[in-house]
């Protein structure tokens, strides 16, 4: 949830109560008229130095600020009276996370020490360790022949053991791997209410498809199933592998991965080192497994109103205080 969502309510239970806000422009207009009348009276002073002493610029600005904060407090009180409904992040009790790891030959590149695949295994195992015990975790390999290595299970140790045993294969079929991951999500046991638990797919890869259906085509299916896909483009532009005695460059390619993530409402991330990959997985652990729920946030807006009312009061007090020069 971003800052805008925390400030602007999703809806109001009694929106008609906001009609009381019509009094705010009337109060603001009255203040402006009174200020102008006061300024006109001030111009009658023949001694401008005496006028500056009577109403210095700093005092005028503090007076304007006090009024502005008082009006803002009234606005927030009106919103609170309308009983705003906001969005809050709440961790769900059960969910399914499918970890998709690229095991294509390009993952043997050593631009990431000790190699892309070894660093990816270590980071993925650490990531699984951060997933709540009540969550199902599944492991899918990303290659020319993707497969479900471990179906959804709460036995996270078995997932980590399977990650450690992964071996490299040929080709990269990103779209097919997404379909296999979606099928894995379908194998997760239903929740107590009979509904399937929410799911997410996390894909780590160093490039786009070399065969099979395009990733965006499979992403459309994930979008229809309301499954966000988080992608991690892993590696650097300087990666290479030795194939048949020849050096083949395998720079990381993130375009298709980014397209997949954006199409499903997930997030496209990048990592060019083992340390960055660990940070990316740590970020994902704080995002996956949460859902936005509607809550009555009247108290929040009442608190905002009280804060601005207090600031307005302090500003008013400062007007009458004599500060040492």
From TrEMBL:
Keywords, alphabetical: Cell membrane, Membrane, Transmembrane, Transmembrane helix
Sequence ranges assigned to domain VWFA in this UniProt record: 96-284
Membrane-traversing stretches: 14-34, 65-82, 301-321
Keyword Transmembrane: yes
SUPFAM superfamilies, sorted: vWA-like
Listed InterPro entries: Aerotolerance_reg_N, UPF0353/GerABKA_families, VWF_A, vWFA_dom_sf
PANTHER family documented for this protein: LEUCINE ZIPPER PROTEIN 4 (PTHR22550:SF5), SPORE GERMINATION PROTEIN (PTHR22550)
UniProt-recorded name of the protein: Ca-activated chloride channel family protein
Natural source organism: Naumannella halotolerans
